[in-house]
Amino acid sequence: MIQAVDTSVEFAGIPLRNPVLTASGTFGYGTEFAPFLDLRRIGGFVGKSLTLEPRFGNPPPRIAETPSGMLNAISIENIGVDAFLNEALPALPDGVVVIASCFGTDPEDYARLAQRLSDSPRVAGVEINASCPHVKSGGIEFGQDPKLLGELVGRVRERVSGPLIVKLSPNVTRIAPMAEACQEAGADGVTLINTIQSMEVDVETRRPVLSNVLGGLSGPAIRPIALRMVWQASRAVDLPICGVGGITSAEDAIKFLLCGATAVQVGTTNYINPMAAGEIADGILQYAERHGVSRVTDLIGALEVNSPSAS
Amino acid sequence: MIQAVDTSVEFAGIPLRNPVLTASGTFGYGTEFAPFLDLRRIGGFVGKSLTLEPRFGNPPPRIAETPSGMLNAISIENIGVDAFLNEALPALPDGVVVIASCFGTDPEDYARLAQRLSDSPRVAGVEINASCPHVKSGGIEFGQDPKLLGELVGRVRERVSGPLIVKLSPNVTRIAPMAEACQEAGADGVTLINTIQSMEVDVETRRPVLSNVLGGLSGPAIRPIALRMVWQASRAVDLPICGVGGITSAEDAIKFLLCGATAVQVGTTNYINPMAAGEIADGILQYAERHGVSRVTDLIGALEVNSPSAS
Amino acid sequence: MTESPALNGSPIRTRATVIENRADGGGGFCLTLAVSGWPGALPGQFVMLSAGPRTAVERWDPLLPRPMAIYRGHQPGSAGESTEIQVLYKATGAGTRLLAEALPGQLVRVVGPLGVGFPSPSSGQRVCLVGGGTGTASLYEWAVRCARKQPVSVLLGARRAQELIGLEDFEALDVDLRCATEDGSLGTAGRVTALLEPLLADVKPEEMSLYVCGPTPMMRACSERASRAGIRCIVSLENNMACGFGVCLGCAVPLTEGGFSLVCKAGPIYDAREVDWAGLP
Amino acid sequence: MTESPALNGSPIRTRATVIENRADGGGGFCLTLAVSGWPGALPGQFVMLSAGPRTAVERWDPLLPRPMAIYRGHQPGSAGESTEIQVLYKATGAGTRLLAEALPGQLVRVVGPLGVGFPSPSSGQRVCLVGGGTGTASLYEWAVRCARKQPVSVLLGARRAQELIGLEDFEALDVDLRCATEDGSLGTAGRVTALLEPLLADVKPEEMSLYVCGPTPMMRACSERASRAGIRCIVSLENNMACGFGVCLGCAVPLTEGGFSLVCKAGPIYDAREVDWAGLP
Ligand SMILES: Cc1cc2nc3c(=O)[nH]c(=O)nc-3n(C[C@H](O)[C@H](O)[C@H](O)COP(=O)(O)OP(=O)(O)OC[C@H]3O[C@@H](n4cnc5c(N)ncnc54)[C@H](O)[C@@H]3O)c2cc1C
Ligand SMILES: Cc1cc2nc3c(=O)[nH]c(=O)nc-3n(C[C@H](O)[C@H](O)[C@H](O)COP(=O)(O)OP(=O)(O)OC[C@H]3O[C@@H](n4cnc5c(N)ncnc54)[C@H](O)[C@@H]3O)c2cc1C
Ligand SMILES: Cc1cc2nc3c(=O)[nH]c(=O)nc-3n(C[C@H](O)[C@H](O)[C@H](O)COP(=O)(O)O)c2cc1C
Ligand SMILES: Cc1cc2nc3c(=O)[nH]c(=O)nc-3n(C[C@H](O)[C@H](O)[C@H](O)COP(=O)(O)O)c2cc1C
Ligand code: FES
Ligand code: FES
């Protein structure tokens, strides 16, 4: 007789039925996936990053394909916090865990936005996007300097009592000080990684492929980088970590758990297979059954490393 | 009548018959490619990074495959400067341009090594590897701090009168200050990028795939990141730049030239197709013919960008 | 963005079996797929197809699926049976060249139907469909539907005769068919837009609806010409897409009224006046 | 690292045409390739094969070629003609599962022959070849050569009868053939190392040479057993490789005398005593 596996985890104080979330900007406002996936099959989802006012993005082309990856320079196009609270959230079925993502150009923006979102009973937690690599001001500046990031998180923390998660940028020399700054400033969890600043060129037109010139790289290509950063962050802080970057399968997700992530987010893969997040959740269960793991939490940080001095 | 294309470029004071070099650590000491490629078809090659003494690397496994990429943690295994000067160099046919790569754990190591190499009439230039991401000490520390890097380059510059190139690490928040530090310290050129620190995990054994835990990511997966950094560096400094990272075809190489590189290096692709560098050199010529470009140097930095404010 | 009839059904995500993948000799291919659970589609809708057939293991290069108009296969399948749908494509870039290698029996990933259908012309109007290159694929089923009710002119353009995709199918319809090839190998020598001139010569705005699908410069040209004649012009846009169902925001088209619209969701069908053509690459 | 005869010829890099890719029913495949300009090879040498057949466009996932022993095809081709070479493999991971899909007429990339050949036994010695799993592929041609001159025992092991690759070919040779399967479905039930015991029972060191290729634990076990009997034991290692010709340094094996050796260049053939077995993963 196979013993039932307990797939639940708690991330940043948010109880999840399984560790599979979907990543901001890759899952719309949730309802877009209704034809493909029962949202209650996954741990929850993170909505597209919101700003206080609705916001348009960059002119086309906004996306490009690269080897095992894609570039995007959407630039936080979103419906704004009001439409999110009044229209997007009520359209979701009960029992779906929603994490709201915030973006701003100064700490006060972030704090006001996070407070409004956090006050909604339908929002399980707030994720601060301090790491968008292709918005001209905001985001990345906070995401590349531990001192600025700490101040930003501190400001938001003062106004938000519910779960507060900070999404980190991979475009840094060292990820550990960034995670530490979040921990010291009172965050409940960190999510990493956002996209990696990149570029693609069309040799026929001799122009950048993206109208914005620079974009963010996502997809399987970046997974080894994301995995490394999650491992480094998990050794630096006690905060729970949500691992993102190139996850396509249950095995990929498990790699992140083993490296210390409490939960994971599926991003670009949602575009290719809108049922992927559900399949990954199922696959983690099957892996646990196959390997006699009774609680998915037993996988977290369970990587065996011979030479713990390596870093 | 097709007018002959002038494919020659000058990189860091080194005249090259075409802009295609091969990257350190991916081309051995040159002779290994004799069965596959006439080394005089390409601009030249950069040898495996050398240390003052011969050096062994990490235990196996040292490599792993990832989506459109590979990880390595070889750790500067090399035959040492003496064997290089006395055995490897003399084994090469005349007319092959050789750039020697140096690695050390302190500036004095680098300086002594660079001087010995630079003194050899067979060495066209010296490339300082200040960016190996998986050697426990040395390399990357210099490569992640502009002040340390500037000091290192300055020390080497004092002892080396010939062409001095610095290879930069991509594992930094901003690449421009690194390139600027090299320029101020008197380097003749910069090469970028080295591999990106990464990790891969085996979910069956629940262990890191590499004995060293961390390794460096190379191959097509990283090309969009390399391209972005070359573009950023080329806007920051006047030094000639050599672009490396995921180049598999002439079109890829041309992307780097358009973004401001004077020359390129082919790395991981040499493993998959040992004739690749020659084919890429030929392909650049064909592109130039097809597009009526009479000098390959006309492609350097020729990217047309609408919004030069983007960065 | 145009007022469009409601979806026949909700999109599905499935693996479809290749029934046939026929080269037409001019670089074009007609791919027939068996799709189980196919909900049917409206003329103008599209599917996202994996870049090539499925292999023994997932390969992430190329990564993204490709949007392809549904050429045929607008009827929903009967329960338990699989429906055949067809797409026409030209082997040009990575995705379509890999797709051209798909063999009968292999699987491709399909998400669809996506987007909205063409809005109806007013009754009694002449319907003029203008197709350039692979854009022609979007128009065939719409030609079939319109021809049941009103007079239809179809203007097709390509570089050379062999590249006129789907030509025989249009020939079999009861429509006024005119072709233009740039090399003059079939029909009028020149661009398809030249065929438009005589039709627009002395038509009154309320007498005609124009539907255009093809390369952006051609759609822009048709749009301008129609605008001068005061004729309603409907276009089907082909922006780059990653998801096809409104979540990546990659397919945005700038609008004349400001802001953007998602081609995969509000489109791909637009009234040409809504589109800020200057903002399209 | 062993003293080995010189290469027949310099390695080449080419695209080879798939002639046949035959499944043996047990997960194993025999791939026959036509290679033009093939310089011939020594028993024990290998090729680097692309992970799957060539597609219309290069796909960089999976990225690296796979090392595969040359099963047959040790003669150089005559000028202008292409030579057939064969490899045996099991469809397990990404590369071999993609290779299993290769159809006749498709192309695979080949670099080879690479590495060194097996060193000769002393004349008059019994030659004992021990193959486990796909390791058997490295030994066949060596068995053929040795059997011409001296007594040969071949011990083959696999999990079950169907997984004993190349069995019929070995059966056709004039050798003392013994098999072991873990499930007992053919020959002795158990591991191939158990077959070694009776052969080593009262053999004198100078009377036998042992050649072993298979999973690392099996080679290690044979090596220990041979060492106790004082018998020379030659192994063919299967480290991960990126290039196959000595430039990536990825395939290093630690040596008992300290330092590393490149399996693709100094190997894959080693005297078992040279190898620091504790340092192998
Ligand atoms: C709604 C819609 C319907 C379409 N219907 C058809 C059809 O019926 N037949 C057909 O042949 N083509 C159609 N296209 C265009 C088709 O998606 C591209 O021709 C095809 O993607 C070319 O891709 P490739 O993989 O060969 O080229 P690649 O160069 O490999 O493409 C690289 C990337 O650019 C995108 N891309 C390249 N060209 C186009 C293009 N013209 N439009 C949109 N994206 C592009 C690809 O989707 C991919 O993401 C349609 C596009 C859209 C948006
Ligand atoms: C000299 C030599 C000769 C070989 N001869 C044969 C042969 O004749 N038949 C055969 O079936 N296999 C042989 N192998 C092993 C063969 O290369 C692997 O079985 C094969 O690479 C499995 O790869 P995969 O792509 O299916 O697995 P994947 O899991 O996709 O492989 C991932 C990576 O690991 C490497 N790898 C995985 N398993 C092995 C292994 N056992 N040994 C070395 N590298 C591995 C792959 O090359 C690849 O780089 C040989 C290996 C070497 C070094
Ligand atoms: C088109 C696109 C839009 C994105 N938008 C956002 C966003 O609004 N906010 C955010 O925090 N991350 C955003 N991301 C980043 C993803 O959430 C994720 O961190 C990243 O894509 C890496 O994961 P992946 O490789 O699984 O896609 C976006 C990614 C893509 C591809
Ligand atoms: C196996 C391996 C070994 C390498 N060794 C060195 C080295 O010794 N010195 C160095 O400067 N770079 C080394 N590199 C980095 C390459 O020179 C190059 O910068 C990097 O691989 C990116 O280029 P690519 O994507 O074309 O491979 C090595 C790369 C690989 C894959
Ligand atoms: S293609 Fe993704 S939103 Fe339209
Ligand atoms: S496989 Fe590259 S050195 Fe041996």
How would you describe what is shown here?
The complex is a heterotetramer, with two copies of chain A (311 residues) and two copies of chain C (281 residues). With 311 residues, chain A is α/β, with parallel strands linked by helices. Chain A has a single domain, classed as TIM Barrel. In chain A, 29% of the residues lie in helices and 19% in strands. Chain A has an eight-stranded parallel beta barrel with strand order 3-4-7-8-9-10-15-16, surrounded by six helices. In chain A, α5 crosses α6. The model of chain A has no long low-confidence stretch (mean pLDDT 94). In chain C, β13 and β14 form a beta hairpin. Chain C is globular. Chain C is α/β, with parallel strands linked by helices and 281 residues long. The two termini of chain C are 20 Å apart. In chain C, the strands form three sheets. In chain C, strands 10-9-8-7-11-12-15 form a seven-stranded mixed beta sheet, sandwiched between helices. A six-stranded antiparallel beta sheet of chain C has the order 4-3-6-1-2-5. A two-stranded antiparallel sheet of chain C has the order 13-14. The relative contact order of chain C is 0.16. Chains A and B meet through β11, β13, α6 and α7 of A and β11, β13, α6 and α7 of B. The site of one flavin-adenine dinucleotide has 23 residues of chain D, from β4, β5 and α1.
What is this structure's SSE topology?
The complex is a heterotetramer, with two copies of chain A (311 residues) and two copies of chain C (281 residues).
Chain A: E1 9-11, E2 14-16, E3 20-22, E4 44-46, E5 63-66, E6 69-72, H1 80-88, E7 98-102, H2 107-119, E8 125-129, H3 140-143, H4 146-159, E9 164-167, H5 176-184, E10 189-192, E11 196-199, E12 201-202, E13 207-208, E14 214-218, H6 223-236, E15 241-244, H7 250-258, E16 263-266, H8 269-272, H9 276-290
Parallel strand pairs in A: 3-4, 3-16, 4-7, 7-8, 8-9, 9-10, 10-15, 15-16
Antiparallel strand pairs in A: 1-2, 5-6, 6-14, 11-14, 12-13
Chain C: E1 12-23, E2 28-36, E3 46-49, E4 66-69, E5 82-90, H1 94-99, E6 107-114, E7 126-132, H2 136-147, E8 152-158, H3 167-171, E9 176-181, E10 188-189, H4 192-200, E11 208-213, H5 216-229, E12 232-236, E13 252-254, E14 260-262, E15 269-271
Parallel strand pairs in C: 7-8, 7-11, 8-9, 9-10, 11-12
Antiparallel strand pairs in C: 1-2, 1-6, 2-5, 3-4, 3-6, 12-15, 13-14
Helix pairs in contact in C: 4-5
Bound molecules: flavin-adenine dinucleotide (2 copies), flavin mononucleotide (2 copies) and FE2/S2 (inorganic) cluster (FES) (2 copies).
Residues 241-244, 246-251, 262, 264 of chain D line the site of one FE2/S2 (inorganic) cluster.
